[in-house]
């Protein structure tokens, strides 16, 4: 059907679903009217001077400050999208740093898409990351998010029990994004694994935390192991993003 | 000596320490001149109409928007502080949600206090939380942060290895804060354990996530176990806060 999969039977019996951190609710707002048409369907022109990803990124950064502001069919620039592909799009201005923060946003975004009856949605997460053995300024397209042991899993504690979810992202979207890069040559682009950590400093081997008990040699040894496992960049949200998109039937990348 | 303990030998050999997320650096800014005097030493008057914590909280929320804005001796309102205690104070406007986000702020704050040669610093973390079997509007003073298995520990992955740190907070500061409440009677105040989770929704037993596979009964059973273990509120940062304060010789509460 293309609708977002919300897998929570409790929601059906709730009188109102309040999206706390978005300041929205099913009784106070008409979510289908507000957000049901948030869809950008257009094709990127191969002769476009600006690479599609630059436009996408630019659109995200230009969207206005509200938590759910994004391009609609009415205000989307002509030509936004991926070559040969229709893309549905909803931008969030910020989700904060780290898995706990993006998880809150994603749970509420997914419920918003569900309540708004959006269909065929692709979510693209764009952000900075630390490169690993690649040229500075490269764009890494994540095929799989891995944890700090380089495993493709997201562990979450639910009522004291550890649940484990897959963190593979949509291969087709990754390939389409890479294909876009072939039309342009102004920055390197690659598909690889992305390592996701809970800590910016010691979790990613930085030596300049307030506390650091490991040597520069141990740091390099660890990062070499990550590289050998296929990791080309590190950041702090991709595991939760990949897991939640996969579980809810969203194309995520 | 009262100085902040930064336990990282690498820092001494670095030409410059850049506090990335605070937009500050040891070469670009004179940190002792800018922040060395950030200290509020005053005593709370027992006859004060406004409870000390209200003032403290109010001061945090009123501080201007920069990342390191806080009260100094020059602009601090008379009377701020805890009864019978001198208190050093530095406020941050926001640290975002979750352990990864507060960890970044804490590492950089602790290095800032170190570079600025601040002494005898107490950090008080104020925020909202979900109550557990207590009156709405209560103020919970955390004696120990516990994880989702109700254990007083903070586990962090460093170069692929799991390190475990204690999460007990300063008992004296907790008692002093409680003593303040005895001077006022306009909200309930208690000392207890605080449960810290990585997830706002399922991690804290909420039924309104995008995904939820547990029943209301299982939720209540889990929260009852938390209550029996001494937990009276839940939030998302206290484990990292307690561990880092303890490791760096800061009085944290």
UniProtKB/TrEMBL annotation, chains A, B:
Pfam families: PNP_UDP_1. It comes from the Eukaryota. GO terms for biological process: uridine catabolic process. Transmembrane segments: none annotated. GO terms for cellular component: cytosol. Residues 94-251 form the Nucleoside phosphorylase domain. One of its GO terms (molecular function) is uridine phosphorylase activity. PANTHER family: URIDINE PHOSPHORYLASE, URIDINE PHOSPHORYLASE 2. This is UPP2 phosphorylase. It comes from Sclerurus mexicanus. The gene is Upp2.
């Amino acid at each position: 059907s293309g609708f977002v999969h919300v897998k929570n039977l409790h929601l059906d019996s709730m009188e109102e679903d309040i999206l706390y951190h978005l300041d929205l609710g099913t009784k106070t707002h008409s979510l289908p009217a507000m957000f049901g048409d948030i869809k950008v369907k257009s094709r990127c022109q191969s002769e476009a001077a600006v690479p599609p990803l630059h436009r996408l990124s630019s659109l995200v950064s230009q969207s206005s400050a509200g938590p759910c502001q994004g391009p609609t069919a009415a205000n989307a620039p002509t030509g936004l999208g991926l070559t040969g592909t229709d893309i549905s799009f909803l931008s969030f201005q910020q989700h904060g740093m780290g898995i706990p923060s993006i998880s809150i946003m994603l749970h509420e975004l997914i419920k918003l898409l569900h309540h708004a009856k959006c269909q065929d949605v692709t979510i693209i997460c764009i952000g900075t990351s630390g490169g690993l053995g690649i040229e500075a300024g490269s764009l890494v397209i994540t095929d799989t998010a891995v944890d700090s042991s380089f495993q493709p899993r997201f562990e979450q504690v639910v009522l004291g029990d550890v649940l484990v979810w897959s963190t593979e992202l949509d291969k087709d979207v990754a390939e389409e994004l890479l294909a876009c890069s072939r039309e342009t040559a102004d920055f390197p682009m690659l598909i690889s694994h992305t390592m996701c950590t809970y800590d910016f400093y010691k979790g990613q081997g930085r030596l300049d935390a307030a506390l650091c008990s490991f040597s520069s040699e141990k740091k390099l040894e660890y990062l070499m192991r990550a590289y050998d496992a296929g990791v080309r960049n590190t950041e702090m949200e991709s595991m939760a993003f990949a897991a939640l998109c996969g579980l809810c039937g969203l194309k995520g990348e």
